[in-house]
Amino acid sequence: MNKQFLTTCLTLIFLGFCCTYSFQGLAQSTDNFPDEEVLVQVVNPVSLTEEYLWMEVSVNSGNKPSPSKVIYMELLDRNGISVAGDLAKLENGKVNSYLQIPPELPSDNYLLRVYTRISPYISGEKGVFQSMVSIINSQKPPVIDSSQQKKAGDLPNLLNPSYINSRDSLLAVSLPLPDASDISIVVNKVSPLDDLGATINFNEMYASETPQNQDLIPELYGHIVKGKILDSAIDTAEVFFLTLHGNQSHMFVDKPNEKGDVYFDTGNFSFFEYAVIQSTRTDEQVNFILSSPFWEKTPNEDFTLPPLSLSPTDEAFIKEKILARASHQYYLAPIEVPLVPLPFQYITDYSYQLDDYNRFEDMATTIREYVPMVLVRSQNRKTIFKNFNIPYNLVFKESPLLVIDGMPVFDSDAFAKFNPKGIKSMDIINRYFYINDLKFTGMVNLSSFKNDFGGFDLPKNALFITYKGLQKPYEFHTASKTANHEKHFPDFRSILTWQSNKEIDDNGILNFTFKPSLLKGNFELRVRYREGRNKTFNTASYLLNLN
């Protein structure tokens, strides 16, 4: 048994060193990095504030889905300032994601950028999707130029009437699309803003940048949180603990490199809202910052977005958009996808549900009374804890790692005096365990009812930072989900449908249905598809006259 345990320990040590030094190795060479192409279909490029800017994102490397797990989305104003940004999780190189448009944004044109952590540096222009979107704020309306004589924009070709039929309250479309795959469709009200497809020259917008000047680390398992030590002297042996908190909490541990950079791979733990950073130097305040995960490059000063200027003839379109927003909030309100809770990070030897026992007013008494595999001792007038080492049938000389909701507690005396009335459960590890190349002599882990540390005070030397993780997944309503809503609520949707991952039938026909709204006039059907195997994406547009 001891031989088997020793083998397991050596294996864990080896894996720990691999994890610790893999970041440094990846940052030194980009030869094996995926050459990524980022493709995006923007569902509603003309939107109102407080709406969702929906998009379908695909990231490919060669003819295969990219191994990257995170996509970055941001809106830049005409000064190159990021006004909205979010991260989303890629599954097999794809995700249907969104940006929530802030309510305070003024009416204007904005630049949408979508990329992975490494694609701007490795892949250049094809690694950064860029498109102009128009945001309209009814409280901060766009300029109305009465002298402007706007010409009618070019409309797409009218969809062959034989391809569309009525089916109850739905419209059924059968579109010949032979040898097509990876199909997505959007049906939107035609917009008078016809400059959204303006050419954006990547090379003219950004100064060239060589990857050799960057510590590039692909996100192959999950989001990587980068931190920076601000001390002039860097101690590469100092250990930093990052605790990420949301509905759940997880702890991550790593050491800095020679430049003071610390990288925490969050893996499958995706959804969090703030971070707590501590180090093993508990006698000093942590001098540390978390870096923004977004691409720091901004467009050159020579690049300018065209102003959002409307003519009086556009008034009807704006009124329809405002009317549609209320319908979207009712008919197309996003459905939050239920999240599966992640289990505790480590395999425990003993677990206790504290409500199963009589509660005491401090942790020292609670452990002393109920946990025989953890000893409570006094040393230098402070309470300390010692875990039994089950595999070796002895007591560890060093103290265990004390944790509350993923946050390590280095003051054992404060931990001992803490009242556990807000603590739900306690997990005990009675053996060596490893995080990267760091060895710990057991653990006492507390989990609170509300994931709020159970009322334990934040350590004085810790750093508390707001840091948002990946966006929570939402599902866009499909046509079938809007078909049976109550009839007393008027339906003025301007987005009639958005459907992805469609397939053609055996005859090469794309079949889909959608429910029209009370809005009349011209709608645009946009079909994005991959023609043949290993081909690039194409987009076809058709005019639907729904009167």
Describe it.
By secondary structure, the chain is mainly β. A hairpin with a 2-residue loop joins strand 26 (401-404) and strand 27. It starts with a helix and ends with a strand. The strands form 10 sheets. Strands 2-9-8-5-6 form a 5-stranded mixed sheet. It has a 5-stranded mixed sheet with strand order 22-28-29-26-27. It is elongated. The protein is built from 7 helices and 35 strands. Mean pLDDT is 87; it is low at 1-22.
Helical content (DSSP H or I, runs of 4+): 10-25%
Give the mean pLDDT. 87
Structure annotation, total helices: 7
Low-pLDDT segments, ≥5 res: 1-22
Radius of gyration: 28 Å
Terminal Cα span: 78 Å
Protein structure class:
mainly beta
Overall spatial form = elongated
Largest sheet: 5 strands, mixed
Strand order of the largest sheet: 2-9-8-5-6
Please tally the β strands and state the result: 35
Please report which band the strand proportion falls in: under 5%, 5-15%, 15-25%, 25-35%, 35-45% or over 45%: 35-45%
Question: Which terms would index this structure?
Answer:
547 residues, mainly beta, disordered N terminus
Summarize the structure.
With 547 residues, the protein is mainly β.
Ordered list of secondary-structure elements with their pairings:
Layout: H1 2-28, E1 36-42, E2 46-48, E3 52-61, E4 64-65, E5 70-76, E6 82-89, E7 94-100, E8 108-115, H2 119-122, E9 128-136, E10 143-144, E11 164-167, E12 170-176, E13 180-189, H3 202-205, E14 224-229, E15 240-245, E16 249-254, E17 261-265, E18 274-279, E19 288-290, E20 309-310, H4 315-331, E21 335-336, E22 350-353, H5 363-370, E23 374-379, E24 382-389, E25 394-395, E26 401-404, E27 407-409, H6 412-417, E28 423-435, E29 438-448, E30 463-466, E31 474-475, H7 479-482, E32 495-502, E33 509-514, E34 521-531, E35 537-546
Parallel strand pairs: 2-9, 10-20, 26-29
Antiparallel strand pairs: 1-3, 3-4, 3-7, 5-6, 5-8, 8-9, 11-12, 12-33, 13-32, 13-34, 14-17, 14-19, 15-16, 15-18, 18-30, 21-31, 22-28, 23-24, 24-25, 26-27, 28-29, 34-35
